[in-house]
């Protein structure tokens, strides 16, 4: 692809400036002292809920809005921060698939780990206050494994979806394991290795009686044999009105993280002989996006009837695929990028998957229960450099297509989990 010239205002918006971490830390501490003092003052007059700060409802520059809007984590910029990787886990984490260990698989440039997501959307008029605020936001985004482990004690966290959802699950496991001194106390409940890719895996953090589970359900709904007397050429049917039978195991979880989308295309469905079934009948005229919408309505009906009132439900947005100069099976590649994309013009528009997912979530009536759309698509769009590309798992043929769908770990899914963490805090997840 040819790179377009970047408009001046967009170039300024995406200018990557190194941050002086120590100075910002001082600012953040000073701001936190001010905030803490305000907790005390407002608590005296009984008109302030300290948790409101964690909803990030700070002053926003929006003259047309009469109310302060919460910070939007999905918008911001990638900033260079070489200290970021030092606070993360390493590829030696025992819960990583071989295919996600990019440096061990021969990748020489590890600069993709030196970038940190800086959210925008919460602005105060003073430049100094803005620095304070940015530091505070980053402080709140920083994943605290001990915090989540303690809040999740005697609980369950469930990830359900496709292999990119597994990518995020493995990232979450490694981030969480940083809060556990004895790593051998973390084990798969059924004795399965991390390389098991069918069915499900359940990792138990025994010191906390916490399980973090992954269920492979690429469509979320059930796929199985077609009804009798179905037209010839139909191998399997995707039953858009039946949620995957794994859903019985999702019940009762404290945190549910869903994703889907990568299998909802013609290559993975009708071109493989997998057609759509609705009401016990094959519907040959149903296109992929119509079937996707119907399947999400099935998920919505299930979600609205969850019995556990403490469940926090998230649906992650579509993870972008980054093939340059061709599709995955036609020589497309992503091994030429070593830093985040800096040109807005190179980014794809919001995928239709996200529009459908967010619409369904807005329709949901959860009462006291919470459900949120975790839109990580925009921030991930910039990261052509974060994929395994040609540095795939050992034994992969030399001429195999590059992997520009999944992500190197540590890597971009860590940021998704930092945003998940911040959302859990803002929702008062399992506060005592």
From TrEMBL:
<feature type="transmembrane region" description="Helical">
    <location>
        <begin position="25"/>
        <end position="45"/>
    </location>
</feature>
<dbReference type="GO" id="GO:0016020">
    <property type="term" value="C:membrane"/>
</dbReference>
<comment type="similarity">
    <text>Belongs to the PC-esterase family. TBL subfamily.</text>
</comment>
<keyword id="KW-1133">Transmembrane helix</keyword>
<keyword id="KW-0812">Transmembrane</keyword>
<dbReference type="InterPro" id="IPR029962">
    <property type="entry name" value="TBL"/>
</dbReference>
<protein>
    <recommendedName>
        <fullName>Trichome birefringence-like N-terminal domain-containing protein</fullName>
    </recommendedName>
</protein>
<keyword id="KW-0735">Signal-anchor</keyword>
<dbReference type="GO" id="GO:0005794">
    <property type="term" value="C:Golgi apparatus"/>
</dbReference>
<dbReference type="Pfam" id="PF13839">
    <property type="entry name" value="PC-Esterase"/>
</dbReference>
<feature type="domain" description="Trichome birefringence-like N-terminal">
    <location>
        <begin position="70"/>
        <end position="123"/>
    </location>
</feature>
<dbReference type="Pfam" id="PF14416">
    <property type="entry name" value="PMR5N"/>
</dbReference>
<dbReference type="InterPro" id="IPR025846">
    <property type="entry name" value="TBL_N"/>
</dbReference>
<dbReference type="InterPro" id="IPR026057">
    <property type="entry name" value="TBL_C"/>
</dbReference>
<dbReference type="GO" id="GO:0016413">
    <property type="term" value="F:O-acetyltransferase activity"/>
</dbReference>
<feature type="domain" description="Trichome birefringence-like C-terminal">
    <location>
        <begin position="142"/>
        <end position="422"/>
    </location>
</feature>
<keyword id="KW-0472">Membrane</keyword>
């Amino acid at each position: 692809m040819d790179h377009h010239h970047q408009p001046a205002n967009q170039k300024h918006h995406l200018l990557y400036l190194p941050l002086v971490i120590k100075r910002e830390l001082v600012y953040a501490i000073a701001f936190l002292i001010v905030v803490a003092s305000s907790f005390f003052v407002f608590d005296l007059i009984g008109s302030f809920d300290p948790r409101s700060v964690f909803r990030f409802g700070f002053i926003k520059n929006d003259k047309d809005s009469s109310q302060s809007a919460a910070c939007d984590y999905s918008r911001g910029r990638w900033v260079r921060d070489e200290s970021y990787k030092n606070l993360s886990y390493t590829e030696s984490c025992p819960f990583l698939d071989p295919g996600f260990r990019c440096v061990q698989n021969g990748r020489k440039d590890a600069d993709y780990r030196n970038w940190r997501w800086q959210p925008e959307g919460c602005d105060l008029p003073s430049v100094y206050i803005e620095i304070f605020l940015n530091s505070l936001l980053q402080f709140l985004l920083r994943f605290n494994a001990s915090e989540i482990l303690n809040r999740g004690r005697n609980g369950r966290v469930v990830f359900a979806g496709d292999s990119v959802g597994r990518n995020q699950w493995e990232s979450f496991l490694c981030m969480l394991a940083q809060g556990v001194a004895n790593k051998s106390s973390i084990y798969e409940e059924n004795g399965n290795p991390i390389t098991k890719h069918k069915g499900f895996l359940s990792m138990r953090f025994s010191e906390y009686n916490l399980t973090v589970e992954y269920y492979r359900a690429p469509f979320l709904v059930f796929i199985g044999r077609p009804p009798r007397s179905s037209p010839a050429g139909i191998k399997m049917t995707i039953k858009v009105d039946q949620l995957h039978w794994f859903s019985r195991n999702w019940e009762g979880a404290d945190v549910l993280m869903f994703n889907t989308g990568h299998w909802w295309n013609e290559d993975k469905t009708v071109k493989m002989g997998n057609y759509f079934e609705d009401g016990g009948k094959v519907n040959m005229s149903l296109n992929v996006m119509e079937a996707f919408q119907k399947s999400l309505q099935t998920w919505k009906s299930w979600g609205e009837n969850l019995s556990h009132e403490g469940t926090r439900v998230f649906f992650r947005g579509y993870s972008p695929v980054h093939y340059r100069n061709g599709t995955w099976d036609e020589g497309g590649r992503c091994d030429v990028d070593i830093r985040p994309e800096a040109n807005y013009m190179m980014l794809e528009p919001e995928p239709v998957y996200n529009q459908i997912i967010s619409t369904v979530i807005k329709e949901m009536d959860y009462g006291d229960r919470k459900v949120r759309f975790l839109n990580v698509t925009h921030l991930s769009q910039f990261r052509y450099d974060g994929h395994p590309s040609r540095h795939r798992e050992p034994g992969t043929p030399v001429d195999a297509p590059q992997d520009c769908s999944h992500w190197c770990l540590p890597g971009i899914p860590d940021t998704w989990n930092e945003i998940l963490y911040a959302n859990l805090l803002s929702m008062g997840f399992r506060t005592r």
